[in-house]
Amino acid sequence: MTDDELKALRKEASKKKRMATEWASKIHDVVEDTYWNDYKNLPDMAAQAVAACEEWKEAQNKYDEAAKTAEA
Q1: Over the range 21-32, which residues count as b (16 or more CB within 10 Å of their CB) and which as e?
Q2: Residue 64 belongs to domain spanning
């Protein structure tokens, strides 16, 4: 695997992590600021956050495996 391919995998994992963090931030904002009005949105937001975390984990594992292979 080339350095550029590894960089692309790392960038993809970082992007997925940022997206998961954004969902966590949105949930935090509801809990901190608008809980009594927006609490009904939390189950959907939580599902989106879980999906984003799973996508990040998959991308991170892909990068980790490629990096390990490249070291060998």
Answers
A1: eebeebbeebee
A2: 3-71
Half-sphere exposure in the Cβ direction for 60 (13 Å, CA): 12
Dihedral angle over CA of 8, 10, 11, 17, nearest 10? 150
Residue 72 is predicted with a pLDDT of 77
The pTM is what? 0.90
32/64 Cα distance (integer angstroms): 35
Are 48 and 24 spatial neighbours (Cβ–Cβ below 8 Å)? no
Domain count, the chain: 1
